[in-house]
Design a protein that fits this description.
Distance between the termini: 55 Å
Strand order of the largest sheet: 12-11-10-7-13
Helix content: under 10%
Shape: elongated
Largest sheet: 5 strands, antiparallel
Length: 152
Amino acid sequence: MKKHLHPISLCLAAGLLLTLAHPAWALEYRSTGRAAPLYDAPSTAASKVAIAGSGLPLEVVVDTDVWVKVRDPGGRLAWIEKSALGGAKTVMVKADASVIRQQPRADAEVVFHAERGLLLELAGAADPYGWLPVRHADGLAGWLPAHEVWGR
């Protein structure tokens, strides 16, 4: 006896496969508005594990009313008070060296060079080709490849 799948079953199976093939949510990053302690639990009575400097981009893992569980650029998971977040959106250079260019093209004029760990303000959305507009604290602005930063 041959079994045939009902068309609705096929649609449900296809939907399940598509759901599993894509992440359930997009990564969210927020930057610190001020220097703040990172804790090992969502309480000021918990142990402090580090201090997040002002402008540090953090990946949001869990968001509650008062606390946010975050991943820092080094991969450490910790909790931070939600009130410490909300500064200008920043990214951190993760490449050993990155070239910030005047336009979003590999052959565009160089504006400045950035080394690993430098924080840059995100000045807008990425273009369709993966270039991010960024601004240095001293006012210099330009574009760099999105894959060379962490925190967008």
